[in-house]
Design brief:
Elements: H1 4-18, E1 25-28, H2 39-46, E2 50-57, E3 60-66, E4 73-79, E5 84-90, E6 99-104, E7 109-115, E8 121-123, H3 143-151, H4 157-161, H5 172-182, H6 195-216, H7 224-227, E9 267-271, E10 274-278, H8 280-284, H9 288-294
Antiparallel strand pairs: 1-6, 2-3, 3-4, 4-8, 5-7, 6-7, 9-10
Helix pairs in contact: 1-6, 3-6, 5-6
The chain binds a DNA duplex (16 and 16 nucleotides) through residues 1, 32, 59, 79-83, 98, 115-120, 128, 152-155, 159, 162, 164, 171-172, 272-275.
Amino acid sequence: MPELPEVEVLCRHLGPLLGGRTIRHVEVRRPKIVLPDAPEEFVAALTGAKILSLARRAKYLVFTLRSARQREEFVVLGHLGMTGRMFIARRGVAMPKHTAVVLELDRQQRFVFEDTRVFGRLSRDASSLGLLGPEPLSDDFTAEAFGAALRKSSQAIKVKLLDQSLVAGIGNIYASESLFRARVSPRLAARRLKPAQVQALWRAIREVLAEAIAWGSTVPLNFADRSTGGGVFYFGQADGSAGYYHERLLVYDRAGQPCAVCGAPIRRTVQAARSTFDCPRCQGSEDRRERREWI
DNA sequence: AACGCCGCCTGATCGC
DNA sequence: TGCGATCAGGCGGCGT
């Protein structure tokens, strides 16, 4: 599941390859991906357009384009959803089964967006950006504002971290990882975090995300060629080779395995219909209510 | 207004 | 062996 770090790494890879390129031809194989545009509208808008730049906001990729005829700038928002992949491939190379959108470029290359579960988007509708909270790695994300927002919420902190209006870009994986690093129980009500816990969590979020980006930037891209069938480039979701990506996560998807800090078995619970992973010993002690249940 | 819950999707896995 | 049920989960939309 691509979250902020994976999208950031993807953006850094794709940006230099897409900047300045002209879109010669557009193929929409999955109309849902380009909603609310009808496929023909999307095709008409992008054909002949030049890609000016690529940026990331939260888990979104922001393509800034300049149209062929009107010479006006517009943006296309990309989201990988659960299973989306984006890469540059040579023309003639076989396309993945679930290819959703293809942008034919110059130099015999194409940009491919494939998405099995079709939760992703490549759309001219950029309204989603308006609802987003601060970028966690920017100066806009302050511990003070973070704490103030948490005090207003009775939701469990793990669930609250998934709220993109609080802080943008954290998904299910990094929510659990950040809470583990901060030694805060995922079930603690947001408003019950002590100031020291807010501070620890704020720091942990930034560290965990920054380290994931740094790590992702070092991943060799050679195995990408296999996943793109000999394509020129690889995308961002480093899940392609099993285990490779999961190795550095300390609690996510590690139910039953020993905690890296204390050795107690990591547990999996369900919050808001999503898996949560935590160490009952490292993260349980601050949650009085939970402790009482335990004893 | 904050919060809970559903629907969207398909492939992998599970139980019978 | 085969087949249906269940699970995974980001996010928009809707109801309370």
